[in-house]
Amino acid sequence: MSTQEQPTLPAEKGKEYREPDADEQDTDKATSAAGDDAFPSLTVNARGVAERFRRVGDWEHTEALETQEVRLSLSHDFQSYAEWTDLISADFDPHRPTVWKGDIVDRLFDQLSEHYERPSSTSDDPPHWTVSVSGTATAWRRFFLECVQTGSEEHEHAYHAVAHLSQLLGADIAGDGAALAALDLINEYDLDHSKEQFLEDLQDDADDE
User: Fold this and answer.
1) 135-172 confidence digits (pLDDT tens)
2) What pTM was computed for the model?
3) What DSSP designation does 153 have?
4) Residue 127 belongs to what domain range?
């Protein structure tokens, strides 16, 4: 059994958070308004060990499959909210995990031309696999404010966005861009939501550099 090594994806760098001043907020809003209407740039990345199956031989009444262990690096850029719900659980419950990393990897496998399987079938946190969604603070803000419709009022909508970002960070699937987006929303809308988790996530990312 042989192993094929694919180039790994670069880790997202942590950033130290500071409160944006009024000029920066105005510039960010102007840039967002002047930008194109492309879907927010969010990317799911997955790395780990898989088993690849391919048919060998050309017999009329016999089928043979060859199994090969490989290391994969998968990357998928989201193009629509439908793609997000296909790959990432759309359910939201602050009291239980709703992000199933094993299922995300399996759905990514479904998009490949060859047949792959994970050695473990667990859905929650598959061994030997890392799964994350990367994006800037601006991309995360746009995604939850423009693409995910929760809450009838703007303030309520922003609060739901922060709660969902908190859950993605708690599931260790989002990075510093999500934490920065949550802090910006809390400040902009004066939300009654703790900043502690988001500041800790930013500090942890900075310590890992």
Assistant:
1) 999 999 999 999 998 877 999 999 999 999 999 999 89
2) 0.76
3) S
4) 22-44+77-100+123-208
